[in-house]
Amino acid sequence: xxxxxxKSTLSGLGLKKYFLKKNLxxxxxxxxxxxxxxxxxxxxxxxxxxxxxxxxxxxxxVGGIVVGALSGSQLSVSGPAxxxxxxxxxxxxxxxxxxxxxxxxxxxxxxxxxxxxxxxGTIGNYFPSSVIQGMLAAIGVILxxxxxxxxxxxxxxxxxxxxxxxxxxxxxFSALENAMNQFSVAAIVISSLSIAVLLIWPKFKKLALVPAxxxxxxxxxxxxxxxxxxGFALRPDQMVSIPVVNGWNEFTGLFIMPxxxxxxxKDVWIVAGTIAIVASLETLLSIxxxxxxxxxxxxxxxxxxxxxxxxxxxxSGFLGGLPMTSVIVRSSANVGAGGRTKxxxxxxxxxxxxxLLFIPFVINLIPLACLAAVLIVTxxxxxxxxxxxNMYKKGWxxxxxxxxxxxxxxxxxxLKGVALGMVVSIFYLLRTNMRNSYFYRITQDDQxxxxxxxxxxxxxxxxxxxxxxxxxxIPQETNVIIDxxxxxYIDPDVLEIINNFKHNAYTKGIIVQLENIKTTYTVxxxxxxxxxxxxx
Length: 536
Hints:
- The protein has about 525 residues and is an alpha/beta fold.
- The protein contains 21 helices and 8 strands.
- It folds into 2 domains: about 25-160 and about 165-420, no CATH class; about 435-515, Transcription Regulator spoIIAA (2-Layer Sandwich), CATH 3.30.750.
- The strands form 3 sheets. Strands 3-4-6-8 form a 4-stranded mixed β-sheet, with helices on one face. The protein has a two-stranded antiparallel ribbon with strand order 1-2.
- Its main location: membrane.
């Protein structure tokens, strides 16, 4: 017996090592892709937020290593979010100092952790699939439109911007038009060749062992050096620019500590609450979206994710970083690069740290044009024409909320666009719900029509209007049977309508009979413990 159990244990360990090794073959290359995507985004978002560039890198490092380790999501990648730039910029100005602001970031992390403990992550289960798919498609379109100017060599807007109206007062389309009039030949050559490599390289299995984005970076650095001796040389602002540290002391000197003396400042708590709510919503949206495109179709525990994000923001704020969320762009790049487990996110954070410490001069040779190409191809994968075709085939109740979400996100921002998509989706949900509250059957005898109305299993307040309209349209001199045999619950307002109709029907010559309809109903109980186990 002992030998049998020992064999079984050894077999299990061998299997685990096999899958770990197998996953690492995909996670390591994917982590390099995510690192290359995250690097300019971390720097760009920090710049747009009015924060030190180092703060953006800290946030990316903490998001990768700390949140990656604590999160239950296997593919989500966390870091500074473009959707928070306006909030961060305004908060730094209103609080008077960056040290006070990062105290608010720490407190926001505490609030998020508390939200996770309070099971607030279940909110993520209520986002309709059509809206999530629309959000993903919109992010794809935005990536293409926003990165084209960078691919043309015009970098007036920060790399991670997702809002329609940019910080430089241009909008998505005017910025693209402006870029076409100010393009750089070197940037166009680099980005065009990069896109070609990104599309063709993965088709060759032997070559695919080396990530195409890494090849693109080497090509970009090589072409940058070639163009540097010509009249088409790239300017410093067209390159990645990370802080160069000369030694450990200089590195540790970049960290900023929170001003804990402002803990009683009510404005700090207001900023913290705002960040906690917005960051949590963006995280839940991102988690839902990434689960949709996960090839293995795993479901991430949302409450655990909020706690992981809370821990990440506490650490980030303490070290002088920005607030973070789970980010769709980096996460979708992870999926597209073949990432399989959370090790990809953890490794990407490690590469950010090592690049800052050991190879900043090499990193600063990377042209933004080749990284823009990586994001453009990522956008193309998110917004393929096939996605629009598939959503159209699902019917108008799916397609219209999908399209509205796409357009709204493109022309406003992520949260506003999703909110509008939710409104349209809820309209179609109510419309469908109204139609499904009862079943209607008419028979005819020699003298009168006989109508049997069979109520559905759940008849809620949302069904009230549909049932009211249906009853008022019943013709005179009719026999009506309202059957509640299948109903587990009937809302009190609906019961009142049915009883009033029965009471007044005789004035129209309508005879009403109620079958198996109780005078009161209690809401069906849900096994809370079971639901909590599912959500965790």
